[in-house]
Amino acid sequence: MATAREIMTGGTECVGEKESVLEAAKKMTGLGVGALPICGTDNKLKGMLTDRDIVTKVLGAGKDPAGCTAGELAQGEAVTIGADDRAEEILRTMTRHKVRRLPVIDGHTLVGMVATADVARSLPDPDVGYLIEALSTD
C-alpha cells in the first residue's frame, strides 16, 4: 500500500501563528483551500485552522478576525502523519482523531497534506468507504 508521501498534496503553505485570522482567511481564499496548518516562529506545526474554525470560533463568537491571531485558535498539538507512514496508518489516524486533513511531516518539516480527497483518489473503495463512514459518525 502507498505511503503518505505518495498520496499527499505537496507544497502546503502555513499560516503563521501570529498572523491574523483575517489574513489566514484571505490566504485560504487565494489558495482555494478550507484549512491551513498553523506554523510557529520556530517553523514547527502548532495546529490546524479551518474555515469552520473561523466561522464558529471567531465570527460566531463576535470576535474581530483582524484582531485575533491564528495561534489563538491552535488547540494543542496538531495530529500529523509521517511522510513515510503507510496508508493503513493514515486511515487509522484519520479515523481515530476524526480529522479530514492530516499534515504530512518529514522530521519536523511540513512537506504536504493528506485530505480525504487524496485518500479517495489513491486507495481502494472499501478503505475509503470505511474512512468516510467513521468521519461521518459522532
UniProtKB/TrEMBL annotation:
Keywords: CBS domain, Kinase, Transferase. The keyword Coiled coil does not apply. SUPFAM superfamilies: CBS-domain pair. It holds the Pfam family CBS. Residues 8-65, 73-131 form the CBS domain. GO terms for molecular function: kinase activity. InterPro entries: CBS_dom, CBS_dom_sf, Diverse_CBS-Domain. PANTHER family: CBS DOMAIN-CONTAINING PROTEIN (PTHR43080:SF2), CBS DOMAIN-CONTAINING PROTEIN CBSX3, MITOCHONDRIAL (PTHR43080). This is Histidine kinase.
